[in-house]
Amino acid sequence: MAASIPAMLRNWLDELRATGYRGLVVLHSVSPVYAGGLLARIFSDVYGDVLCLAPREAREGLRSECSRLESPGAIDRLLGTENSSVVLVVPQLLRPNLLAAAAETVRGGGVVALAVPPLGEWQPGGRDSIGAYRRYLVNRLGAARALFWADYDAGILYRQALPRERASPPPGPEGYRPRSPVHRRLLEAAATLDQARALDEIVLHLRRRGRSVFVTGDRGRGKSGLLGLVAAYLAASHMVGFVPVTAPSPGSVQGFFRVLDMALERLGVRHWAIERGGFVAGVAGPWFHFRYHTPDRVEPGAFTIIDEAAAVGPMRLRRLASRSPRLLAATTIHGYEGSGRVLAKMIEAILPEPRLVVGLEHPVRYPPGDPLEEWLYETFMLRAEAPRPPSWPPESLDAVELDRLRLADDYATLAQVYGILVQAHYRNEPDDLALILDAPHHRLYALLADGTPVAVVDASLESGDTAYEARIMPDLLAQASPRAMEARGMRVVRIAVHPELQRRGLGSKLLSYVEEQARSMGLDWLGAVFGQPDVLGFWRRNGFHVVYVSPLPSKATGEHNIAVAKPLTSLGYEVVYTAARDMLRKLLLAGHSLYRGLTAEAYAAVLEGSPELAQQPLAVLTEEQKHRLRLVLEGRLDVEAVLDVLWLLLVNHILSSGGLRILEEKDRWIAAARVLQGKTMSDIAAGLRVPIQEARERLRHLLERLSKDHAAG
Ligand SMILES: CC(=O)SCCNC(=O)CCNC(=O)[C@H](O)C(C)(C)COP(=O)(O)OP(=O)(O)OC[C@H]1O[C@@H](n2cnc3c(N)ncnc32)[C@H](O)[C@@H]1OP(=O)(O)O
Ligand SMILES: Nc1ncnc2c1ncn2[C@@H]1O[C@H](COP(=O)(O)OP(=O)(O)OP(=O)(O)O)[C@@H](O)[C@H]1O
User: Fold this and answer.
1) Is 541 labelled a binding residue?
2) In 3D, which of 536, 543, 489, 541 has the Cα closest to residue 517?
3) Distance 335 CA to ligand 2 centre (A)
4) Which of the four CATH numbers 1.25.40.280, 3.30.2000.30, 3.40.30.10, 3.40.630.30 does domain 397-582 have?
5) What integer pLDDT is reported at residue 338 of this predicted model?
6) Which atom of ligand 2 approaches the CA of 81 most closely?
7) What would the pLDDT profile of 333-390 be if each residue is shown by its tens digit?
8) Is the CB of 382 under 6 A from ligand 2?
9) 184-360: same fold as 4-161?
10) Residue 2 above 60 pLDDT?
């Protein structure tokens, strides 16, 4: 009986190849390594090439079967490669990111295969899983349109399916009539008609003095390739000299450089590649140089190219956009390494006008409508969107904890929940769904309006006993609070309200339900960690305090993580207030060193504090300082002569009142940036778009006010 599974698989592969589409193979066995070897042998016969990804202990047994054998961790490097078949040997945890990324490398007619333990023992969520992810995956396998699913040892075929129709290849660039003066040879270098049309539009836009271009599309649509074609046009037309190119990693620009190199070759433009650390880091010619820099190092040029802009983050983009006269950017809307429509809209708004937005739809490596891509996108909800909101006001509005095992069987509700939750994070990736469904220490809460989710919280239980990789808050609190590791709490990993129903109190209502749940579990604190300082207002309104601000920006997004917490027990009070008071002091005393990198707005926001954080001020002014202060107040010296005095007065004002209590927003920003962070007046004026003279006036008024308060105090 067992012998027939390989034969059936071969037949299925023949039929799959005839359709031109890609498919998924899942083969169970008590020895996933053996099953992986078997799959590799069959694929090698059928296709000639097999990429195998297996953990170290499994690799020895596979060496002779695979044309390339790597660890699952190498997937980032392999993303630019193209394969007919990929075998993933997965004895334990199956990370959705790995499966989705491996599929990205497979061309039309090819397969991705999973070699896994027998169905009864299969736990793709790993050892501590609650089993919801397994249940969900098994349900989803039932919905795949191109699947071969069997148990090799038992000789059982669970399911095989093939699409009925045959794929038609995406239309090519042949015969496309351009409107711009783009070179014919360059147009023919496009991989799809879509890419050719976009190239033409972009050239037209740039020739008409357009300032920015934003290319969007799902993964594998040829976005990076399109940037390469445009770059070749700019070089060949002598429109550029030095062009900085940035993206989250050098690996992510290899496709760009490859297509740039190919296109310059076709145009007969002399050029050479510059390699660094095994990657192409630049392509240069006699009058041009395209050069890769990491997002934290890149200096904008007259033309700046940004690939995977979503991963570079809005903060860095804003900085690049404000300093670069012209920009070419591309981003994935939905893909294995995340992103989302919200972020694409945000990026679009940052890019300067006149701006052209072009979308690419046709995949480059496989036909449109590919069933494997469809299955991955649906299974990992990569196109998740908030559902249509229910009619408002609803008859009932109930906060509940969602049963994740039941959710695994209810695709429609899970899609609604996830569709709301994705907004709380710029970048959503397949792994996120598995985490939310399956992580043992996570809890999922929702506010249901007549049964439809309108607000969702994903929370995680954390204490000193939680595994190091799975806890965040206890370690942050422990930096200042000696008893933090004794305390137990719940971290709101994400909170989101339906986009059409925000600012009606729903977020606060759900949060207070979560707080009740945490109290009933006897937890000491409720907390959250996030990157966007603009939601701080929401947390403060709900009684949370800033307990930590990361001095280092995230390498990718440039944002500084902020942690907030609210105490629920007396131990919680001790831990949270100790950390929050210490943080306020540290933010003040290290404003010019550790926290100088924060924008004035973000720094002023974290300093806002609350009266409960009031504490002992620093030393009083010396006689000499008082003397200088008098001279300034009488107009005989400039404010800059008493910045030390102003620093002391401001720090003491904040310490004794528990936060930066200056009402006018611009005054707060200028005071924070000049006095506490030590930024120059010209940087501040440029950053906040305030004339220097006005900034000086505001600083002087602040001095007058604080010295009056000081005299009165
Ligand atoms: C750990 C994390 O997930 S952080 C990321 C948070 N999530 C997001 O940013 C996703 C998009 N935003 C949302 O989903 C929601 O707006 C939330 C969750 C931030 C807030 O929920 P809402 O229901 O909109 O807020 P709610 O009406 O309860 O707000 C109460 C008060 O908080 C403050 N507040 C709420 N949102 C904000 C905000 N974005 N910025 C500043 N203050 C805010 C306001 O003072 C508000 O009162 P007001 O509307 O009378 O001025
Ligand atoms: N015009 C082209 N000629 C040859 N190959 C191309 C062309 N355009 C893209 N490719 C190749 O097709 C594959 C997918 O294209 P590309 O990387 O540009 O897609 P993308 O939309 O940027 O997606 P991703 O987010 O996966 O990078 C890459 O290997 C790329 O090198």
Assistant:
1) yes
2) 489
3) 14
4) 3.40.630.30
5) 56
6) 29
7) 876 555 666 678 888 888 999 999 999 999 999 999 999 999 999 999 988 888 888 9
8) no
9) yes
10) no
